[in-house]
Structures are given as C-alpha cells and as structure tokens.
Amino acid sequence: MDTNQLWKERFQSHIKMVSRYMRLIFNDHLAFAMIFFVAAFAYFYQAWLETVPDTFPVEWIVVGIVGALLTYSPVRTFFKEADTVFLLPVENKLKPYVRNAVIYSFVMQSYWIAIALFALAPLYLQIYDHVSASYILVMIVFALMVKVGNLFATWFMQKTRDMRYHYFDMAIRFIINAFIMYFLALGVPYYALIGALLMVGVCFLNYHNLYKGFTLPWDRLIDQEDAKLQFFYRIANMSTDVPDLKRKPKKRHGLVRLITGRMPISRKETFKYLYAITFIRSGDYFGMYLRLVALALFFVFWVPAFWGKVLFAVLFLFMSGFQFIAIYNHHRTVEWLRLYPVAVDVRRKAVHQLILVIMVVQVVITTIGFVWASDWVNALIYLSIAAAFTVLFEAFYVRGRIPAFKG
Q: Which pTM was predicted?
C-alpha cells in the first residue's frame, strides 16, 4: 500500500470539504461582522497603545498566548474508523503518512503563532522601544523551531493511554515553552536556546520510552480526529446546514430545572420547552453564548472610548442573535416532532422568544459591565441603544431569516 498516496487523497478531500464550507461561511453576514470586528479592534488597539504604561507586562502576555499555542500541538491524521481494519496491518509502513501529517499540522499551526506574534508586535515594540522590528521575525522563527519539537513530542506521547503521562508531558512542555518565550521577549535568545535544547531532550525521552514500546492507539486517534472535524462542523453550522454534524447533549440537570421549572405545562409551551433545553444542553449553543458574553465584557472593560465600548458590545450582541437562529433547524432530522399537534407558528414563535431572551440577558449583563467600566449615565445610554437594537433585530432580521429554514 502506498501510504504517501493515501495521505494525498485524504488531504485533497479535506481541503475540498473545508473550501466548500468556508465559501458558505464568508458569503454570510457573519463574515461582514468579523471583518468589521477586526477593523474596529485594530483601530482601538492602536488608540490603546498610546496610553499603555511602560511597566505593562507584555512579556507575560507573550508567554501566556504563544506558550499555549506552542504547547497545544495536535497532529492531524485524517484517520477514519475503517482504518482499524485496513491500516492496522500496515502500521509499520505509515512513516510517509505520519511525516506528511506532521508537516501539515506544522504549517497550519504556524499561521496562528505568526498571527499572534504579529498582533502582539505593536504592543511589544511600544514597551521595548529599543528593540528593532526585525527582532519579531527572530522570535517567530525561533518559535516555529520549537513548534516542531512540540509536534513530535505530542505524537510520540500518543502511544500511551495513561492520561497522567499526557498531562505531565503538557505541563513540562508548557514550562519549557514559557521559559523560551520569556527570555526571547526579554531579548536574551541564548537562554531561550537552552530551553530549546530541553525540548529536544523531552522529545528524545518520549521517543525512547513510549514510541518504541507501544503501538498506535487507533481508537483514540480516530476519536481525536472526529472531535476536530466536528469542531469545524459546528463553526460551519453557524452559517449553513451541515448534515454530518453530530450533536452530543450534556446533562446540566440543575440549569435545566432552573430554566424550565417555571414553564407552564401546556401545548403552546411545547417548543419553548424543547428549544430551551436544546440551548442549555447542546454544546453548540450554550458554551458559545457564554464565550460571546465574556468577549463582550472584555471589550467593554478594555476599550477606552465609550462609543468604542458600545460598538463592540452591540457587535457581540448581533453575533449572539445571529448564531442562534440556526437552533430553529436543530431537530430537522427528528421526524416525530412533526407528529406534535402543534402549529408551525408556535414553533417559530418559540425560537423568536428564545433569541429575544438570550439577547436581553446579554444586554443586562453588559449594562452591568458598563456601570463598572464607565458610569450610570453611559450605562443607560448603552442600555437604550442595545434595547432598540434587540427589538429591531428580532422584529426584522430574525423574522426574515427563520422562514428560510425548513420547518
């Protein structure tokens, strides 16, 4: 079996799938919101740099962000369930396949490291004004070299099923990565080189202690690959229908009882109850909602100008409302819902009410943030703007989008 050719076929299939969904994602209103977000962030980032104190701990920001990106180094294998039958007998011939997988993972993850360092470069050069801008390129090259070691260490560690070793390995590698990036940020690359040598030692120990002694844990690698694929599907599902998306509900019994405990038991409340539980228990919605609210609060406290705070808060309010329109089509494959003796209008109304509630809750939370970050007057101004935006968004935008979904 030509495993090198097998990799090329799976790589091409993956790129084709990603390209198809990316075209759909960036053809939607979400793409416009993201472009607007990046432009606004760059503007207020530049304004914030003019007020940042000289004692700002930028080196620790570099350590935290880049160190985490270096430590998190999964290897994309594109393994499938059928491989436990067809590839297991030729495991000793998979070196070209694994080599290509490591190269692909390095290229894709290198983009994030470069983006992070370029984004932090203005802040870094503002604090360390004596450092040349070309030194950022030195940091990027050094970080990418360290990334190679992290990828190999992660791959070698895959062969053990004992999660204690995985956690210990990640902790050690994060400490070493933080050591490297800290001294790079301080402008002392010689100490960073010592950290790089330590990383080589970690890779060597992992290789001899684990990789030579165990076989590949196929079931675990396939589960990890499926989890990465489903993560991309969840992102794509925000803008289009993804038939291959798997949804694994979470229990959250206490939160479910808190939200649904006061709902009256009646036919008109059927879909309100269903979509409330779906929002809470599905990992696609509730977790994303919490992250969007947290990001909105972050920008409310971080952006110095009041109208900048309002801009970001309303932008994340739009993103929250936009994301959860898709919940109307969440149960499209469950045929027994059509047997409910409930009109379709009741179902649409339930989605409208849910979106309105989650947006109102976000408005209340961010208004409290405005009170802390600004004052009562500015908080009331934001509250009036956000309330008007929520009503108009739900009355026009949501009502125009939901009929496009299949009932």
A: 0.75
Q: Three-state SS string across the chain, please?
A: CCHHHHHHHHHHHHHHHHHHHHHHHCCCHHHHHHHHHHHHHHHHHHHHHCCCCCCCCHHHHHHHHHHHHHHCCCCCCCCCCCHHHHCHHHHHHCHHHHHHHHHHHHHHHHHHHHHHHHHHHHHHHHHCCCCCCCHHHHHHHHHHHHHHHHHHHHHHHCCCCCHHHHHHHHHHHHHHHHHHHHHHHCCCHHHHHHHHHHHHHHHHHHHHHHHCCCCCCHHHHHHHHHHHHHHHHHHHCCCCCCCCCCCCECCCHHHHHHHHCCCCCCHHHHHHHHHHHHHHHECCCHHHHHHHHHHHHHHHHHCCCHHHHHHHHHHHHHHHHHHHHHHHHCCCCCHHHHHCCCCHHHHHHHHHHHHHHHHHHHHHHHHHHHHHHCCHHHHHHHHHHHHHHHHHHHHHHHHHHHHHCCC
Q: What is the mean pLDDT of residues 252-278?
A: 72
The predicted-structure confidence for 6-39, as pLDDT tens digits, reads as follows 899 999 999 999 888 888 777 656 667 778 788 8
